[in-house]
User: Which sequence fits this backbone?
């Protein structure tokens, strides 16, 4: 419920400047659209910071579509349900550049620029969440106690994914407010909000990498076979694959995401001003945002978690509906029992006071009996 409210609030800010008000500012000039609807970036009816080109947008959409197909196939082949998160990230990248292709051909359609901007800015968060979920399963699968840094594997998955969702919400709000159709003041506010979200994302990545290093050092300290610390064999006696390739793959993915975050912070830190060339050159976006995400998707395609997280032990235990209801009823019964015991103790204390003997004496007599 929170995300729709944030998006709605941001959309009100963005859409507050409708096309009819384009000439309301003394400094605002509405330009006559040229080829593909292109106008100067400082015109009121400019919805891009540069002249978007069709060919690279098409090529990028095709590449991301190929990655989406590969990861969809691998999800079914390796039977890893949670990879839908990664597929969503790749799919959002694909849709972003399909829309960007349409926008490059019709640059006066503000809907294209806004939708591309939002999908493109938020897609990497899905990939980030997938890295969190994968490492949590690595801890669960290879460490006998299923914990690192004092945190259980399922706790790592839960809290880091929640942190990613929080970053998603903040960045979504900022990304919508920073739509090219918004007023300069709203755009600045949106960029500031978006950068806060980026900072939160990077902070949790650093904390997460610290946990990964703890896991890595612990496994290395176990020696070559790792039997002193690591669970090297499955319940059926088969030896588990090495943990190293998947760990190095996750390091690579997080480096790619960090490169992209640094680029975005560098892009927006100096504002949308002529002396800051980064926002006004499309090449930077392809080189420092698209390419790192392609590298991340390629790494996860080659070193897919399904190659290393094998067997039922590689996933968190899944309770049936009947088991969930039984656990819920058991928890409810325990709570009621605790409440009844507390009430009984309270009544005993009140009764003892009424008898004038004092609660302490009643307790002592009870102990003697």
Assistant:
């Amino acid at each position: 419920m929170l995300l729709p409210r944030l998006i709605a609030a941001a959309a009100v800010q963005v859409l507050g400047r409708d096309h009819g008000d384009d000439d309301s500012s003394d400094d605002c000039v509405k330009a006559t659209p040229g080829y593909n609807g292109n106008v100067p970036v400082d015109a009121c009816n400019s919805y891009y910071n540069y002249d978007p080109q069709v060919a690279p947008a098409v090529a990028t959409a095709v590449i991301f579509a190929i990655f989406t197909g590969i990861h969809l196939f691998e999800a079914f082949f390796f039977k890893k349900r949670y990879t839908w998160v990664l597929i969503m990230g790749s799919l959002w990248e694909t849709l972003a550049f399909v829309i960007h292709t349409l926008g490059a051909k019709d640059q006066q359609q503000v809907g294209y620029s806004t939708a591309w901007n939002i999908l493109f800015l938020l897609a990497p968060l899905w990939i980030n969440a997938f890295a969190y979920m994968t490492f949590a399963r690595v801890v669960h699968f290879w460490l006998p106690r299923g914990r690192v840094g004092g945190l259980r594997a399922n706790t790592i998955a839960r809290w880091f994914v929640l942190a990613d969702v929080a970053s998603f919400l903040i960045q979504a709000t900022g990304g919508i407010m920073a739509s090219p159709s918004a007023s300069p003041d709203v755009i600045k506010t949106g960029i500031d909000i978006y950068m806060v979200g980026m900072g939160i994302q990077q902070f949790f990545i650093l904390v997460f990498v610290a946990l990964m290093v703890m896991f890595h050092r612990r496994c290395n300290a176990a020696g070559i076979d790792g039997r002193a610390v690591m669970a090297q064999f499955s319940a059926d006696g088969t030896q588990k694959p090495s943990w190293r390739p998947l760990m190095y793959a996750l390091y690579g993915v997080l480096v790619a995401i960090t490169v992209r975050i640094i680029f975005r912070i560098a892009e927006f830190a100096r504002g949308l001003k002529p002396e800051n060339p980064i926002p006004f050159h499309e090449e930077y976006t392809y080189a420092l945002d698209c390419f790192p995400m392609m590298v991340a998707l390629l790494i996860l395609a080659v070193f897919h978690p399904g190659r290393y997280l094998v067997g039922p032990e590689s996933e968190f235990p899944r309770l049936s509906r009947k088991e969930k209801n039984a656990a819920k009823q058991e928890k409810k019964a325990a709570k009621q029992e605790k409440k009844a015991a507390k009430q009984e103790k309270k009544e005993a204390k009140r009764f003892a006071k009424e008898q004038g003997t004092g609660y302490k004496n009643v307790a002592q007599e009870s102990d003697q009996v």
